Structures are given as structure tokens and as C-alpha cells.
Amino acid sequence: MNMEGKTDPQHRKDNRSARIGMALFRMSQAIKKVTLAESDTLRLSPVQIQALLFTTHTRSDVATVGNFANTIGTTHVTAVKILNGLVRRDLINKSQKAEDRRVTLLSLTSKGREILN
Fold first, then answer.
1. pLDDT, tens digit, for every residue of 51-79?
2. How far is Cα of residue 26 from the mean position of the Cα atoms in its chain?
3. Of 87, 106, 111, 86, which is closest to residue 96 (Cα–Cα)?
4. What is the structure's pLDDT at 5?
5. What pLDDT shows up at residue 35?
6. CA distance linking residue 89 with residue 83, whole number of Å
7. What is the torsion angle, in degrees rounded to the nearest 10, for the CA atoms of residue 83, residue 85, residue 87 and residue 90?
8. CB 92 within 8 A of CB 108
9. Which portions of the chain are predicted below pLDDT 70?
10. What is the secondary structure of the chain as a DSSP string?
11. What's the confidence (pLDDT) of residue 27?
């Protein structure tokens, strides 16, 4: 099927998966808009907010730089740059994993928890 059929209102009316797809698209756009508005208020970029959310909602033993990079689909170096900005603002702590010093664990600071609340 071509893209014209997917944007055709009649196709969406008749096709359940097309309606669901459009609903998910609209929800993602709404979430993006809310995130951008909140990020402006907090003076954080949307990806920095993602980093804070990742850190708070991920088990402490797997909240690592590498897993964050995988989650947002970027390189390790880019993830480190994003996280270092949050470390400088005292929102995230980075520490080496005791069992494997190559792994960097992430945790929120009290200031980071306050911002998320």
C-alpha cells in the first residue's frame, strides 16, 4: 500500500490498524509538545529530560551510560556528553560499578529528584 492510502480519511475509517496507528501518532505528537514545553520551563533539552526519566525509572544496577545510549539510540560518546551536562548542573551522579569499573552507573541527585517531581 502506498502512503496516500495511509493518510486517506476513508482508509483510516475502514481500517482498524490505520486508526490505531493514527491515534499513536497523535499521542506521540502530544507527548512531544508537552515535553518541549516542560523542557523550556526547566531549561533542559528534551533529551536531558529523557536522561532524568531513564535514571529514575531504571533499576539502579542497569542505569548505565551504555544502556542510556542504547535507549535513546545514540553513541556512547553522545550519551556521555548529555549526561555530563546534567552532572555539571548537579542533577545526576555518575559512579563506577564496583564489580566492573568500566561500567558507569547513574543516579539522581536530590536536585534531580526535585526537578522530576
1. 999 999 999 999 999 999 999 999 999 99
2. 18
3. 106
4. 53
5. 67
6. 10
7. -130
8. yes
9. 1-9, 11-12, 35-40
10. --HHHHH-HHHHHH-HHHHHHHHHHHHHHHHHHHHHHHHHHHT--HHHHHHHHHHHHS-TTT-BHHHHHHHHT--HHHHHHHHHHHHHTTSEEEEE-SS-TT-EEEEE-HHHHHHH-
11. 86
Crossing angle of the two packed helices 65-72 and 76-88, in degrees rounded to 10: 110
Longest dimension (CA), the chain: 58
CA distances (Å), origin 91, targets 13, 54, 72, 94, 117: 46, 13, 19, 10, 13
Q: What's the grid cell of residue 4?
A: 496516500
Please, how many CA atoms are within 13 Å of residue 96, restricted to the half-sphere of its CB?
A: 5
Q: What is the pTM of this model?
A: 0.69
